[in-house]
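Bench log, entry 3. Co-assembly request; chain sequences pasted below exactly as received.
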Amino acid sequence: MSALLEVQGLRVRFNSRAEAVRGVSIAVEKGETHCLVGESGCGKSVSALAVMGLLAKGGLRAADRLEFAGQDLRHLSERAMSRLRGDRMAMIFQEPMTSLNPAYTIGSQMAEVRTRHRGGSRAAALDRAAELLGRVGITAPGMRLAQYPHQLSGGLRQRVMIAMALMCEPELLIADEPTTALDVTVQAQILRLLMELQRELGLAILLITHDLGIVARMADRVSVMYAGEVVESASAAALFGAPTHPYTRGLLECVPIPGKVARGAPLGSIPGTVPRIPLGFAGCGFRDRCAHADASCAISVKRQSLTAGHDYACRLPAGWAA
Amino acid sequence: MSAPIEIRDVTKHFRQSTGAFSAPRLVRAVDGVSLSMKAGGCFGIVGESGCGKSTLARLILGLHPVTAGDILVDGQSLATMPRRARARLIQPVFQDPFSSLNPRRSIRDIVGLPLAAQGVGGAEIDRRVHAMLERVGLRAEMAGRLPAQLSGGQRQRVAIARALVLGPRIVVCDEPTSALDVSVQAQIINLLNELRRDLGLTLVFISHNLAVVEHICDEVAVMYLGRVVEHAETDALFHQPTHPYTRALLASVLTPEPGLGIPDVGLGDQYPDPANVPPGCRFHPRCPIAAARCAVETPAPRMIGARRVECLLA
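Structure output for the full assembly:
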């Protein structure tokens, strides 16, 4: 059986000079959380937007395979795509203030999602909205429905966004840095909520984040992205247990873990910055920052498997880091 | 020797306009904070957004006048210190290197501005700017560039160079790595640590990233709604958090250890509002262990060993 969302060889470019996504493959199974992790500019958000058909004007998408629940999304009309979006696949973004319309009440924005996709009366849609607001832990949902986005705190707005994404029972939820703008305490509450909803509704979640802590705690599977490519992909346990790509290892060393790095001792860091990858670039995108790079890295990159389901894109042999 | 920073019962209230026809709200951003920081140390201030940590930083920098209380920097009251003298003593590094650097000025002008303001001449500025850029790990030829030509990490290095070019004794860093990527964040933390050691700086480090605070700071104050609810040495605070808010804050840190799941921090869905401070203990509406008296009695700061805690039940 194939996964709920199956992406193979996804490529995106915005102009003739640079390529933002270079052959990304990800599969998200029903009921599982797949984390896409990487630094800013690595193409993780663009990959998600490309899947949803939401690329900014001028964005060109190509893929070998792009299927949602067995349906090929590549040649779907914009009309058919917008029927799917918000209905069977939903997305929440980092900054809930900019993704909610400031001129409409929470209730009318939430009701619109339902009536537009599923029809029915506005009153019935508002009932469902109130029920979902309660479900995501908002007290006095009736009052909140009549409020405007600016009257809510950041944590509440993100809860509203999640409730709105659930208005029509979606099978896939794409969450792009959903807690980055929030305090750690609120972040923990929102992530817990997502996990509960997933269990209850059997949601598949594609979670985009730069935070390895979130990845470790939330993910079933992880894809590490760098410069428009997935450089390592594995189950969460395998990735943290045996990180193999030099970039993954570098990223993990940058995070202070209490008790592992002595206070004041230098943290690991990766020299340099994320490069821009020109069209027609060959070889490994990480080679300029990699301590293990040699001449062969400028020609091509080998994709290897450490174990079944744990793949990485590097010339180094499996177990080099052990 | 006097402590480099001595904060004595400082209060900062803002009047927030709520429109032409209603009375302004009184926002109690900092509400009676006393702290003393050690020379050559790194002092962390943590808390959620709206707890007053950035306001406290601005008070220490003298960017806002205090409503009440006094801040002594190097034994001298900030209120009476001339601006230029203050600039030689204490300097800021802000969160966002994209908005804290003038986009139309070259790096040389940005880093050299504090020197020019102190009346240093052109050739001497060039010499000191170049030396400082190299000190923070930038090539001297960067001096001719504009901020837009630099990456986020390089810009934050420029901000650090600007802060250090006058040779201050104290640097106040307000979320210095929040806008940066993880790999770059580590570079900046390492740089700050190294500069502190080499130059004998006192750092005030404000952050919501507790893992970073634990890594770099020797002492930490936890703020909640304008008050310091717990203040202790880093090890004591992180290994034995005493205030229920500190415990919740630490519980919500997600370390990269798979299989631990997402903790239940037990704070409920109430959010603190500094314009509407609850009576009694400020934390009681969200406190998982609040008792009836917490809603009435205001806790006074108490010393438990070497730590100071503001909780009736601790």
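The two ends of chain A are 34 Å apart (CA to CA). The CA atoms of residues 9 and 159 of chain A lie 34 Å apart.
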